[in-house]
Specification:
Elements lengths: L89 H7 L35 E6 L2 E6 L9 E9 L5 E10 L6 H19 L6 H18 L5 H6 L7 E9 L4 E6 L3 E6 L7 E2 L6 H7 L5 H6 L10 E2 L8 E5 L5 E6 L1 H4 L5 H7 L8 H14 L6 E8 L10
Antiparallel strand pairs: 1-2, 2-12, 3-4, 4-5, 5-6, 5-9, 6-10, 7-8, 7-11, 11-12
Helix pairs in contact: 2-3
Length: about 400
């Protein structure tokens, strides 16, 4: 087999299990040679195998008589698996209990998980910790999901709150999307979010203006991603075709009166007011081929984003980036609302500001985690072709007497 019969992931000849879904390839049917006639071979049951119970004759009501359940028969495929807790002795249960800290397979609940993430008993691939993540921190929340087509989650997010010099909070949400065509995109996104968040927690309490702090944080995030490319020479010799780790970046800082966004690449931030009769807005401009065509007046936005080259990014964090140009902007909304910070795994299914506003629940400001969950579900229901990450930050609105712009 050249591909997995379950998920169509490419296979090597020596594979016993699919590296993407853990499918047991030994149980898959093998194709016959062109000249062979289909035959049926009866294989004797292994010694000690359980006999299948004979069904009783139906009664006058024509209702089939009940037979044994599958759980009534002792398993033989994996040596009996874990002992039945209802009948096992304390000694048997203690012997079968893995040591503290040992990961147990989510499929068979008996085998231990090896360092590569596969069950030593049934071979099932285990879900990664980053496949689905949710976090809520006071007035900000975020959700990240692997999606329905990717075999891993290459997005990362950080939400936090830093104290400004006057004691008021600055709420932070950062989202990075790993570039799949580069090597280690998941490491790149994780390194960028962590480095940027640490930078903000150092600069904001010192009194650095939030917009300047976010600009500096993007530069530090880029340095963290660049450092991932400093591999031994032997690693490059074995995989010379791979690009350096890379990711996009988008972040937002919300203070008592100010809304700041910063970005590189095509991850986005949207403003959605609580009053849906007011106008929603996209706060970022993509570093992408489509955006360049629109900005140059060569194509309309509809034409550009319908082109197959639309999502080719022209800016990213990574050692292979042409020239890093962080974008930042500050706003003073005159009404309450929420900021939606997301990867393209979400906005592909709600591209315009109006579409995003329709997808955001009406109570998003009061329930940001629920709103992030709903938006993630919106992307998955739409097809989930990419990793999906979204953070929702409520903005309290300008105080009485405060100016707006």
């Amino acid at each position: 087999m050249s591909v997995c019969p379950a998920c169509e992931e490419p296979l090597d000849e020596s594979d016993r299990f699919c590296g993407a879904c853990g499918y047991d390839l030994s149980s898959a049917p093998r194709a016959s040679a062109p000249d062979d006639s289909p035959t049926l071979t009866m294989t004797p049951a292994p010694e000690g195998s359980a006999e299948w119970p004979a069904a009783q004759e139906p009664d006058s009501s024509d209702t089939p008589a009940p037979v044994h359940q599958a759980t009534d028969l002792e398993g033989i495929e994996s040596g009996g698996g874990a002992p039945d807790p209802r009948t096992a002795t304390p000694e048997q249960l203690e012997a079968a209990t893995p040591a503290a800290g040992t990961k147990v397979c989510v499929a068979c609940r008996a085998g231990q998980v090896d360092p590569d993430g596969y069950c030593e008993n049934c071979g099932h691939a285990q879900p990664r910790e980053r496949d689905h993540m949710e976090q809520e921190l006071g007035a900000v929340a975020a959700v990240s999901d692997r999606g329905l087509r990717h075999h891993r989650n290459e997005d990362a997010f950080v939400i936090s709150s830093a104290a400004l010099p006057d004691g008021s909070p600055a709420v932070v949400a950062l989202v990075c999307d790993g570039v799949s065509s580069a090597t280690r995109p998941d490491d790149a996104s994780l390194a960028a979010t962590r480095a940027a968040n640490e930078s903000l927690h150092e600069s904001l309490p010192r009194g650095t203006h939030p917009q300047q702090a976010l600009h500096e944080a993007i530069l530090i995030a880029a340095e963290a991603v660049n450092a991932l490319a400093q591999e031994p020479a032997t690693a490059r010799e074995h995989q010379p075709h791979q690009n350096a780790p890379a990711c996009t970046f988008v972040g937002s800082i919300v203070t008592r009166e100010l809304l700041v966004v910063g970005w590189v690449g095509d991850s986005r931030a949207y403003w959605v007011p609580d009053d849906r009769t007011a106008t929603a807005a996209r706060l970022t401009e993509d570093d992408s081929w489509a955006a360049q065509m629109v900005a140059a007046g060569l194509m309309s936005e509809a034409e550009a984003y319908a082109d197959e080259r639309a999502h080719a990014i022209t800016g990213w964090l990574g050692a292979d980036a042409y020239e890093l140009e962080p974008h930042t902007a500050s706003f003073k909304p005159d009404r309450p609302g929420v900021v939606v910070v997301c990867s393209d795994g979400l906005w592909n299914y709600a591209e315009s500001a109006e579409e995003m506003a329709r997808a955001v629940p009406a109570d998003a400001a009061a329930r940001p985690l629920h709103a992030a969950q709903v938006l993630t579900g919106h992307a998955l229901d739409g097809g989930g072709h990419d990793n999906v990450t979204v953070a929702v930050l409520p903005f309290p609105g300008a105080r009485q007497g405060a100016g707006s712009a």
